[in-house]
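Chapter summary example.
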Amino acid sequence: MAAKTVEAGLEQRWRDILSVHARTMCEIDRALHPHGLGASDFEVLDILAAEAPRHGDQCRVQNLVGRVHLSQSALSRLIGRLEKDGLVERSVCMEDRRGVWVALTAKGRDLHTEVLPLQRAVLERMLGG
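The structure predicted for these 129 residues follows.
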C-alpha cells in the first residue's frame, strides 16, 4: 500500500511539473508573439546571447542540442527560420565540416535585449515565490 502511495505521489508531482511547464510556455508565447517570437525561438536566442555574448561570437549548433526541448531536426528548422528572419547567421565549421556554427546578428541581439524583460516577467509571474 505504501509503495502505491509513493508512486501516486511521484506521478502527481510529475503531472504538476508538466502543467507548470505547459502554462509557462503558453504565457511566454503570448508575451513574445507581438514581437514575432515564440518561447522556443526566444530560448535559442537567449542561449546564444549567453554562450556568445559579444558580436561575432559563435556557438556550435551541437552545443544547443539538449539545452532546448526540441529534437535536433526541429532545432535545425527553428534556426533556419531565425536565419530567414535575419536574427542568426549559420556557417560551416572549417575544422569539422559536419559542424555548424550559429551566431546572433545585430538584429537578433537587439530583439533579444528588447524581449528579455518580457520573458523574465513571465517567469517571475509563473514561477516566482
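To summarize the output: The chain is about 65% helix and 10% strand.
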